[in-house]
Amino acid sequence: MSWKMWATALSFAAVASAGAPSAQASDRKDGPATTGSPATDIVDLYAWMDAAGKNVNFVLTLNPNATNISVFDPNALYVIHTSARSGIADTSPAADVPIICQIKSTARSECWVGRLSYAKGGLERINTSVDQKLSFFAGRRNDPYFGYDNTTNGLGGMMASMKTTLTGKTRMANGCYQFATGETTSAKAALTGGTIVDNYRNQNVLAIAITVDKSLLLAQGKTSLAVWATTNRPM
């Protein structure tokens, strides 16, 4: 198998709480590795608990420039990996429970939660497993990422501020830079200041939205999940 792994593992508390936090990160346009199959180019991964604290929701988006004729790669496996932990620093996490989806055609899509639950059905609809512990939707959607990003504010402004701040700085023994309070304040101001503009409001992505009963993912009394995603194609 050839595979492309999405960024770094994310961790979030998966406890039964109406205020349970969410995890999100972004990664788009991966270059030659996905040029031949843009539907395997991971854009974003979102993960959060529902309000009742019973289910974990995931959204995996792909193909940062999807058009009205873009389709999922029928030969690809889209995998969201989950690892139950007692916390971010857990040195003995539970075994990975993968959520695997394959989109063969508009009429045939399938998702598995390890060997615990299975659902199948068509695109642009919600498909639910017999045990009601897994449901998924796959189709084209407007890019949900809010790209507040330019050279003067948003992510671009923050990075420009940090680049200026890093000029002439030396690293500490652990390899990290040390920032003064005023420097971090300046970077935060660049991130939040200015006119808010959604740079991705007119762009579409391919999306797989999945809801899983947390009992399938949290083993051995663990209360947190580390989450990451890969796209996989046969050689």
Task: Summarize this structure as a short list of keywords or feature phrases.
mainly beta, single chain, 12 strands, disordered N terminus, six-stranded antiparallel sheet, 235 residues
Report on this structure.
The chain is mainly β and 235 residues long. It folds into two domains: 2-144 and 203-233, no CATH class; 154-192, no CATH class. 12% of the residues lie in helices and 40% in strands. The chain contains three helices and twelve strands; from the N terminus they run E-E-H-E-E-E-E-E-E-E-E-H-H-E-E. The protein has helices spanning 32-35, 154-166, 181-192, and strands spanning 2-13, 22-26, 42-49, 55-66, 77-85, 97-103, 109-113, 117-121, 127-128, 134-142, 204-213, 224-233. The strands form two sheets. Strands 1-12-5-6-7-8 form a six-stranded antiparallel β-sheet, with no helix packed on it. Strand 6 and strand 7 form a beta hairpin. Helix 2 runs antiparallel to helix 3. The termini are close together. The relative contact order is 0.26. Mean pLDDT is 80; it is low at 1-21.
